[in-house]
């Protein structure tokens, strides 16, 4: 099957449209392929109790995720995978077309952040931060104001006007306490430590080309607050949350190239640190005030 994901035509042996609202296309050519096939790791040697292992470069990546499977990405075009025998297809597809595809997009020359993102009136906004800080919950509360772009793989594409954020699969990972005000399908997650559910939904409208405008870096603090940050602080946040070559010390030239690309994005946007304490949600009204 051929699908359009991240504005790429992807040939996949996974029937993604059984679980996610993804566009099927007819084409004689494709940009990337996804195939279930056996392969041997060349760069990593996961130990018996290893939960995760990674080798990543500009043209070759290996990923091991315990109870999920083995993954290999070559030249920004080919993804091979060997799934764990008990993994369910909605979980495999969500991981493959987010965490794994992040490295394929990186190999294709993009800057990719661990971040959720939304489009409002053709302007794109992202929410980046460590796992568990509340990216998906905040995006869920904003969906009534715009269109979902991505749950956790924020890929920047350079345009004549600046940058846009590419659309991924339409889903969120949400807990039982999150209020869901739209039609959706619910799939249980098998490996999520917070026991969230995969919430798959239809896009409310076709996503047009967006322009990246603003980014929020989500953090824990002593109280609710929001502060605009300078370019230096924004760069530190990008470095802390991006998908890149690894081990870092082996790819100094790659890191220099990434710095130049990130600086270009930072020059085109406005950035904030958004704080909450351990017991409170982020200040939604403060966020909406900035977005409006």
Largest sheet geometry: 8 strands, mixed
Encode the helix/strand succession as letters. Answer: EEEEEEEEHEEEHEEEEEEEEHEHEH
Question: Helical element count?
Answer: 5
The CATH topology of the domain at 113-291, please?
A: Rossmann fold
| Low-pLDDT segments, ≥5 res | none
CATH class of the domain at 113-291: Alpha Beta
Q: What is the total tally of β strands?
A: 21
Q: What is the terminal separation in angstroms?
A: 40 Å
Strand portion: 25-35%
Percent of residues in helices? 10-25%
Q: Could you give the order of strands across the largest sheet? A: 3-1-2-4-8-7-6-5
Q: Output mean pLDDT.
A: 94
Structural category = alpha+beta
Describe the model.
By secondary structure, this protein is an alpha+beta fold. It has a domain at 113-291: Rossmann fold (3-Layer(aba) Sandwich), CATH 3.40.50. Helices cover 22% and strands 35% of the residues. It is built from 5 helices and 21 strands. It has helices spanning 89-107, 135-142, 231-241, 252-268, 284-291; strands at residues 2-5, 8-12, 23-24, 32-36, 52-56, 60-65, 69-74, 78-83, 111-113, 115-120, 123-128, 147-150, 154-158, 163-165, 171-174, 185-188, 197-200, 211-220, 225-228, 242-243, 270-276. A hairpin with a 3-residue loop joins strand 5 and strand 6. Helix 3 crosses helix 4 (252-268). The chain is globular. 39% of the residues are buried.
């Amino acid at each position: 099957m051929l699908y359009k994901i991240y504005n790429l035509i992807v040939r996949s042996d996974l029937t993604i449209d059984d679980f996610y609202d993804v566009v099927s296309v007819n084409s004689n050519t494709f940009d990337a392929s996804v195939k279930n096939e056996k392969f041997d790791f060349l760069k990593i040697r996961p130990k018996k109790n290893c939960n995760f292992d990674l080798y990543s470069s500009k043209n070759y990546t290996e990923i091991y995720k315990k109870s999920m499977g083995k993954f290999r990405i070559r030249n920004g075009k080919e993804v091979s995978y060997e799934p764990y025998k008990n993994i369910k297809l909605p979980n495999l597809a969500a991981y493959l077309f987010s965490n794994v595809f992040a490295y394929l997009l990186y190999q294709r020359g993009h800057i990719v952040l661990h971040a959720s993102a939304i489009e409002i009136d053709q302007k794109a906004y992202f929410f980046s931060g460590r796992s568990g800080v509340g990216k998906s919950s905040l995006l869920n509360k904003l969906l009534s104001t715009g269109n979902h772009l991505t749950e956790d793989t924020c890929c920047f594409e350079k345009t004549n006007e600046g940058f846009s954020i590419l659309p991924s699969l339409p889903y969120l990972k949400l807990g039982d306490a999150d209020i869901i005000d739209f039609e959706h399908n619910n799939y249980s997650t098998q490996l999520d430590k917070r026991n969230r559910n995969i919430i798959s939904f239809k896009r409310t409208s076709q996503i047009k080309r967006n322009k990246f405008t603003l980014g929020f870096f989500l953090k824990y603090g002593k109280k609710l607050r929001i502060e605009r940050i300078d370019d230096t602080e924004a760069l530190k946040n990008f470095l802390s949350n991006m998908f890149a070559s690894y081990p870092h010390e082996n790819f100094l030239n790659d890191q220099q190239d990434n710095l130049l690309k990130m600086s270009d994005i930072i020059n085109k946007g406005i950035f904030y640190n958004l704080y909450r304490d351990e017991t409170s949600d982020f200040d939604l009204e403060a966020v909406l005030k900035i977005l409006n």
